Amino acid sequence: MAKIYQHSGPHLFLLMWKASHAVTGYSHESIRAAGFGSLSDFAVLELLMHKGPQPVNVIGAKILLTSGSITTAVQRLEKRGLVRRERSGEDARVVLVHLTDAGHALIEPSFETHSADLNRLFDVLDESERTQFAALMRKIGQRAEQLEG
């Protein structure tokens, strides 16, 4: 059996995977504490808060949900009165998802709380380390996409 050496590709991947798992768990807990049972519901509302009305397929692509999953999430949010769907005035084939007043009232303070939780997580890094971390994450992500084809 091959030994995994410090700083080898397998070792670096393992470190990244473990950190990613821990960070994702922390993020999910923050979102649950903000009153969301579903990460996808939070992600849809957050995207609409920041980007305004969006087509369903664009939302799914941006938050990495399949077409079936995004449709289910939008329906769930619509039933709760947090979003509404309406046809685009420019192209009737396009259905845009809009935040309702109730959706805004829920996501804005929830996002502020979640944002503070994430800032607390990354407070362990100074500004120089944050800059380096961001550059390294972009670089490795781009390399993976390049090698994937």
Describe this structure in words.
The chain is mainly alpha-helical and 149 residues long. The chain has one domain: Winged helix-like DNA-binding domain superfamily/Winged helix DNA-binding domain (Arc Repressor Mutant, subunit A, Orthogonal Bundle). Helix content is 68%, strand content 8%. It is built from 6 helices and 3 strands. The protein has helices spanning 9-33, 39-51, 56-62, 67-79, 101-122, 127-148; strands at 54-55, 83-87, 95-99. It has a 3-stranded antiparallel sheet. The chain is globular, with a radius of gyration of 19 Å. The model has no long low-confidence stretch (mean pLDDT 94).
List keywords for this structure.
Arc Repressor Mutant, subunit A, mainly alpha, 149 residues
Q: In terms of per-residue confidence, which ranges show pLDDT below 50 for 5 or more consecutive residues?
A: none
Q: Helix share of residues?
A: 55-70%
How much strand? 5-15%
- Strand order, largest beta sheet: 1-3-2
CATH topology category name: Arc Repressor Mutant, subunit A
Structural class computed from helices and strand pairing: mainly alpha
Largest sheet: 3 strands, antiparallel
Kindly provide the radius of gyration, computed on alpha-carbon positions and rounded to a whole number of angstroms.
Answer: 19 Å
Average pLDDT for all residues? 94
CATH class: Mainly Alpha
Tally of DSSP helical segments: 6
CATH architectural type: Orthogonal Bundle
Count of all domains: 1
What is the 3D form? globular
**How many strand units?**
3
- Could you spell the SSE succession in H and E letters? HHEHHEEHH
Give the N-to-C terminal Cα separation: 29 Å
CATH superfamily: Winged helix-like DNA-binding domain superfamily/Winged helix DNA-binding domain
